[in-house]
Amino acid sequence: MTGRRVATGSIRPRSSRGRSTKGRPKPQTRRAVGRRREATSSANEGAARPDRSELDALTSTLTWRRPTAEAPGAPPRVPVRKLHIVMVGWEYPPNHTGGLGVHCYELCRELGRMGHRITFLTPFHGPFTETAGVTFRWPGRRSEGEPPIPFAYQVTSGPAEPGWDTSMNSYNDWVGSLETLADVDVVHVHDWFGTRGGVGLARRLRRPLVMTIHSTEYDRTLGFPGAEIREHEAFGLTRAARVIAVSRHLKQQVVDRYGVPAGKVRVVYNAVRPTPRLERLRDAGVVVLYLGRLAAMKGVDTFLRAAARVAPLAPDATFVVAGEGPEMPRLLTLSAHLGISDRVLFLGKVTEEERSLLLASASVFVLPSVVEPFGIAALEAMAAGVPTIVSKTSGVAEITENTFAVDFWDIDEFASRIGELLQYPELRRLMGDASRWEALRAGWPERALETLGVYVELLDAAGGRP
């Protein structure tokens, strides 16, 4: 690959500090942009390619106002007694579609390990991964006297079946009127689906309400939120005593988009667990991996376009897309249009074991999301020692200095970063080792303690139990 070029620039080693801006052109003044437009127009009237300053402005708009790093707060306080926490959730392993289910499972697992009790309310009947200290309840159990929720709702693509809103309202009514709950300390709602029921239950029990926001309707629709789901989000966010966001980026969006006072929002990041080093897949060769949902917000088309630029220079590389979602047909068509269908492997949904094997076998991991509230798959790749490229709009970019962070629209830059990691094995090794340590320095025990600190803050304010 020596001497060959990727896109418009040669492959070259760069600093592994992903957010460095050395050598980048500075934003231009409006007058300079105007002169450039005139010159471009006279040279080529049909050109419609935006200049760099316009793309920088677009990035600034889509990232809202990413806040600067916050000073470390005081260590979280822990309760002097065991708590009973009612969680209103959506999904729970082994059946889950993304980071929300992982977060709920890992948080419950750690809280249960500490001796706290969790009653987990969900619209579905499982099966659920058995977790010490956790009791699952759902509509339709004989003791509840309600029919089961009859629909399947796809979080990634919106309401999928007629009558979903009626079923959702029925679930929230069930949550809000649930009687057989004793000695509850905190009600904790995850995302929008159970907000109305959670608010009603907390009011009836006279207990504080915490809401964790994992993503917003603005993220899932790329800035065109559905009115009904946004209303559910706003209802919960404005009535919760405390809001937990999984990144500073998401916290700022909650403040800007929903008018939530910054003082009542706490940031608790996701985490990953260390996994044993697995053997690489036999004859895996060089693997450039995307792992996640195939949704518009994930920017998988950028991954494919960057792959098309790198593929001629890396004949031994296979570009793997693992996951399922509504974008699959379009992405299959795009790979054929780009002429790389023989170089891209679409795996569809993968099991947890297959997921671990893929991460163990990957040479490079790419998360090119247009908007990514956190990006737990990237943290998993880092924990596996895989050098990782993420978009600057991902929450995981806030807690790492050992990834390449790229503007989500910059296909040439993604291609260049992939290319240099493939060309320089020592760079891959150094980035992989550094990112592994960075991903594991704070785990789920620390995140559970931070969440407990939010509970204690509210219980102190309420004087313990009423």
Task: Please summarize what this structure is.
By secondary structure, the protein is of the alpha/beta class. 38% of the residues lie in helices and 14% in strands. Helix 8 links the parallel strand 8 (242-245) and strand 9 (265-267).
Explain how this protein is built.
By secondary structure, the chain is α/β, with parallel strands linked by helices. It has 2 domains: 84-271 and 444-461, 3-Layer(aba) Sandwich (Rossmann fold), CATH 3.40.50.2000; 286-440, Rossmann fold. Helices cover 38% and strands 14% of the residues. The protein is built from 15 helices and 15 strands. The chain has helices at 30-43, 52-62, 99-113, 164-177, 195-205, 217-220, 227-239, 248-258, 300-310, 328-337, 352-361, 376-383, 411-423, 425-440, 444-461; strands at 5-6, 9-10, 84-88, 117-121, 134-137, 186-190, 209-213, 242-245, 265-267, 286-291, 317-322, 344-348, 364-367, 388-391, 404-406. The strands form 3 sheets. The chain has a 7-stranded parallel β-sheet, with helices on both faces. A 6-stranded parallel β-sheet has the order 12-11-10-13-14-15, with helices on both faces. A two-stranded antiparallel sheet has the order 1-2. α5 (195-205) links the parallel β6 (186-190) and β7 (209-213). α3 crosses α15 (444-461) and α9 crosses α13 (411-423). Residues 1-47 and 144-159 have low confidence and may be disordered.
